[in-house]
Amino acid sequence: MIARLRSAQAPSAVLMVRPQHFAPNPQTAADNQFQRPATQPPGPLAAAAYAEVTRAAGQLREAGVRVHLFEDDGARDTPDAVFPNNWFSTHAGGHVAIHPMYSPNRRRERRSDVIELLKRDYRVQDVIDYTGLEADGLYLEGTGAMVLDHLARVAYVARSQRADPVALERFCTHFNYEPMAFDAHDAEGRPIYHTNVLMCVASEFALVGFELFADAGRAAQVRARLEESGRTVLALSAAQIGEFAGNAIELSDQAGERLLALSARAHACLSAAQRAVIERSARLLPLAVPTIELAGGSVRCMLAGIHLAAR
């Protein structure tokens, strides 16, 4: 049975950016262990990424999600423009945050026309700009660095150079979230670069890669905090995290029914039991984005959820 009650956790609108000159970003390769070298020459690679975003936007619209699709021509050297959820986030009550970014070329992804669309189509009360923190070397890359529980008001954060504790504290104070930070590492001991490759918090379940947590006690605390909110917690293996199973996002269609958008690769690695738990409250919507995933992010990174009331 698909839940029909609208959830603040599952937005019914998203913003996407379709790239003209997609490429894995050399400025992020050092700390993004999910990133892979390009497998095609620049022209075919960019065309494949363009087609994947076009197809994914169409599938989301067919599923009843409102999609705002922006174009990026690459003229500003923005190889990661396809991942807009890192530079801005939206919040119930009409609030928008603009986030400080670690890599210099990612800062060029910020664009005023996106903010103007939000102000035009949604009820925006204020825009809080944290980009001044970049001058002090303080970064907090949006809903990549943070996985937000909009219902229990918790910000889950894997510590990394893209998630500074000072910036996190400032954000949580402004937006009324409880910060819950932890350490998570890959097999070589490197910090996981973004929390949203490690976990997904939906309305009635959560997907979490506990095997990558550095401290078992902290992992137990995170599990308990999620279970306190009434969610079923599904543990993802390190191998499943490597297949982007944690990089998913719960959305709603226009009727309020929930769906879980994730990549086809992520969907394929879920067990039958895991899928059954998810499908008790959300239908699965796999999207094929293998070219985009070369850049080290997947479907969750491609979708900036809009938690604002429409005008």
Short description:
The protein has helices at residues 42-62, 104-107, 112-121, 142-145, 165-175, 216-228, 238-242, 264-269, 272-278, 299-302, and strands at residues 13-19, 66-72, 88-91, 95-98, 126-129, 146-149, 154-158, 178-182, 199-201, 205-208, 232-235, 249-252, 258-263, 283-287, 304-305. By secondary structure, the protein is of the alpha/beta class. It has one domain (13-305): 5-stranded Propeller (L-arginine/glycine Amidinotransferase, Chain A).
The helix content is 25-40%
In total, the number of domains comes to: 1
Q: State the fourth-level CATH superfamily.
A: L-arginine/glycine Amidinotransferase, Chain A
- C-alpha geometry: globular
Could you give the order of strands across the largest sheet?
2-1-15
CATH structural class: Alpha Beta
What's the architecture in CATH terms? 5-stranded Propeller
The profile of the biggest β sheet is: 3 strands, mixed
User: Distance between termini?
Assistant: 31 Å
Helix-and-strand structural type: alpha/beta
Following the backbone from N to C, one meets helices and strands in this order, namely EHEEEHHEHEEHEEEHEHEEHHEHE
**Mean model confidence by pLDDT:** 94
Proportion in β-strands: 15-25%
CATH fold title: L-arginine/glycine Amidinotransferase, Chain A
Number of strand elements: 15
Number of helices: 10
Which stretches of 5+ consecutive residues score pLDDT under 50? none
Rounded to an integer in angstroms, the radius of gyration calculated over CA atoms is 18 Å
Oligomeric status of the shown chains?
Answer: single chain
Protein name: Arginine deiminase-related protein
Organism: Paucibacter sediminis
InterPro entries: Amdntrnsf_FN0238
